[in-house]
Design a protein that fits this description.
alpha/beta; D-Maltodextrin-Binding Protein, domain 2; 2 domains; 15 helices; 12 strands
Amino acid sequence: MTGFNPNRRRLLAGAVAAAAIGRVPSASAQASLSRNMRVVIPTGQGGGAERLARVFDDFWGPLLKTKFEYSFFPGAAGQVGYELYLNKREKDGHNLLFGNMGPEMIMYALRKPAYRFPQDYQYFCRLDVDDSVVFVRQDSPFRRIEDLVAEAKKRTVPVAVSRLPHPASIGMLALGRAVSAKFNLVPYGGGNPTMVAVMNGEADCGALPIAGVAASGDRMRVLGIFNDEHKMAKYSNNAPAVNAVFGTKIPSLASSRSWAVHAEVIEKMPERMALLEKTSKAVFDNPAYKEAYAKTGAPVETIQYGDRALCTKYANHMVELANEYRSLLSAKRKG
């Protein structure tokens, strides 16, 4: 009869426990990244979103010790990209979305897609605050915003916009309603095509965030800014705030680009989420990032970090604005 060996039992129990522990990822394992980041951008390739994202990941990638891969899915004012990201990309923290919260939350409010914010995804790192402006080509006969409005009281003036659900679109529609001017918004599917349309005369004017317009150099001239604080004056030839000219009360209308992640990652992988938030925030402390950003032609003053709470507040505000101006935006979509 074989004798009982208590030491052997303790060894076996210890081995089983160790094996069990080995099957549960440690906090460091959950936090670390094992492969490249895959990014969905819900607009076309070559636009402002791609430019800003790539400049950012030049500094973020080394902190995460990984690289970034991009895919572009334009369509339906951003809805196509969001649906693909939420339905087809793994919820593992290696898959991100880089979006423009303003237009895309307005789209969300107007179209009411199947996905839900913030239940399905959340923004966690805002890159910028980019005021909406009205602009014309440099040789336009409209020298002041008053000239443009006076013309729009005589005839319907075509306005080039990147997409109908957009803070800049709300600005033009709100201005038209307030001063009884007629603006017809024409979406061109991105900032660059919008500026081309203004440059070649397809549209009398355009409405976009100021960063892209400023990056175009002296080819464009800003007529008015939808922000009473007027922080971007030096990039607009001191163009006035729209409200200051017409006595209107149009809200400040800015775009904000941000990284977003599946909400499930926040809930189930807190260590990895903490890594993404900590390292993305650290990029803003690097002076070289601002230097690289400036080389894109965008004003460095638009750089403004925002955490998850601030992003959520902004996103919900965009939904409120979309609902407030729903009738105007819906009428233009039908047209």
